[in-house]
């Protein structure tokens, strides 16, 4: 119709598509070139950037009405997002965009097709969160989201970098590790305050990058450390000093909990909120523990690469004395 805004995006766009759309009422379009189809065109240098900026404006700049928290990392984004959601739910009204579950009203949940939605969907969802009286939005931001400019023009209140390892490198993703790491680091550049794991690979690069920003570092090299780590409890030092109960076993889950806690502390959560939120968090398919009547334990985990699988087995070996069987499935 005449009210439709059409973005001619991607290598697959052909003149025939536009001619077909014109027969259905298309009156104008946005593209990186003129397809010469006899209707007005707005030509832009970068269609993906244009989509993000126009979507932002079309939906009334919802990002200005929410506190924005974003997690990036090769692993742990979903778990950290769940910790943050449960923490902020204690005293605020968060929405969450997550790989496993998305909620825009705190009541209904649905699975997302992408880790980070396309820009038009993203700002539509943000607007729905605002309409639903949400106060915060928690997001997982992939390197792919920056590569294809889904979050272009967006500034986060807090950005969290959990870890980095060799992954997502290939012909349809990142050509090299350097490119992958560069796009991950863009979250730090586009966040007002940052939280970073000091034990991650290449931490020194990030430390130098954020020295002039508000920041918190966690891990063995800085104040915010994990102590007395047990299967279902740990203690923290620094800003989160205290004792914590946790349902997700594994030191990496405790690290994710601390990262989420430090982020939420900057977004209005109290230490009591953080303790309650961490204790309440369970994540579908992330170190879920099912205890059988005969005492056997079943651990369900979405370990999708070799590094994740090694960590999973190490955790189970640490806490189990009996025989361990591994069942692997794949699609």
UniProtKB/TrEMBL annotation:
Transport listed as a keyword: no
GO terms, molecular function: ATP binding; UDP-N-acetylmuramoyl-L-alanyl-D-glutamate-L-lysine ligase activity
Domain Mur ligase central: 72-263
One matching Pfam family: Mur_ligase_C
NCBIfam families associated with the record: PRK14022.1
InterPro entries: Mur-like_cat_sf, Mur_ligase_C, Mur_ligase_C_dom_sf, Mur_ligase_cen
Pathway connected to this protein: Cell wall biogenesis; peptidoglycan biosynthesis
Keywords assigned: Cell shape, Cell wall biogenesis/degradation, Ligase, Peptidoglycan synthesis
A biological-process GO annotation: regulation of cell shape
Domain Mur ligase C-terminal residue range list: 285-330
EC annotation from Swiss-Prot or TrEMBL: 6.3.2.7
PANTHER family reported for this sequence: MUR LIGASE FAMILY MEMBER, UDP-N-ACETYLMURAMOYL-L-ALANYL-D-GLUTAMATE--2,6-DIAMINOPIMELATE LIGASE MURE HOMOLOG, CHLOROPLASTIC
Signal peptide residues on this chain, from the entry's feature table: none
Protein's name according to its UniProt entry: UDP-N-acetylmuramoyl-L-alanyl-D-glutamate--L-lysine ligase
Enzyme class: ligase
């Amino acid at each position: 119709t005449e009210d439709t805004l059409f973005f001619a995006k991607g290598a697959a766009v052909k003149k025939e598509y536009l001619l077909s759309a014109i027969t259905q009422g298309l009156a104008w379009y946005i593209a990186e070139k003129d397809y010469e189809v006899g209707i007005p065109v707005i030509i832009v240098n970068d269609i993906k950037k244009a989509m993000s900026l126009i979507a932002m404006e079309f939906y009334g700049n919802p990002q200005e009405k929410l506190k924005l928290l974003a997690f990036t990392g090769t692993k742990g984004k979903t778990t950290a997002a769940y910790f943050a959601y449960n923490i902020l739910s204690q005293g605020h009204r968060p929405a969450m965009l997550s790989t496993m579950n998305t909620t825009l009203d705190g009541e209904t949940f649905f699975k997302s097709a992408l880790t980070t939605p396309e820009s038009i969907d993203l700002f539509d969802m943000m607007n729905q969160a605002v309409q639903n009286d949400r106060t915060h939005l928690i997001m997982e931001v992939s390197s792919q989201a920056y590569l294809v400019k889904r979050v272009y023009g967006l500034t986060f209140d807090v950005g969290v970098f959990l870890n980095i390892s060799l992954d997502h490198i290939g012909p349809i993703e990142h050509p090299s590790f350097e490119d992958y790491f560069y796009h991950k680091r863009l979250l730090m550049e586009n966040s007002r305050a940052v939280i970073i794991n000091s034990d991650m690979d290449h931490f020194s690069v990030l430390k130098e990058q954020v020295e002039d920003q508000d920041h918190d570092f966690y891990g063995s090299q800085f104040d915010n450390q994990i102590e007395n780590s047990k299967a279902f409890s740990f203690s923290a030092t620094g800003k989160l000093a205290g004792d914590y109960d946790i349902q997700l076993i594994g030191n990496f889950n405790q690290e994710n909990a601390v990262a989420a806690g430090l982020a939420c502390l900057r977004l209005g959560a109290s230490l009591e909120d953080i303790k309650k939120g961490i204790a309440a968090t369970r994540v579908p398919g992330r170190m879920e523990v099912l205890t059988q009547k005969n005492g056997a334990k079943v651990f369900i985990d979405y370990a999708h690469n070799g590094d994740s699988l090694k960590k999973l087995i190490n955790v189970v070996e640490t806490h189990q004395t009996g025989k361990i069987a591994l069942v692997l499935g794949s699609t």
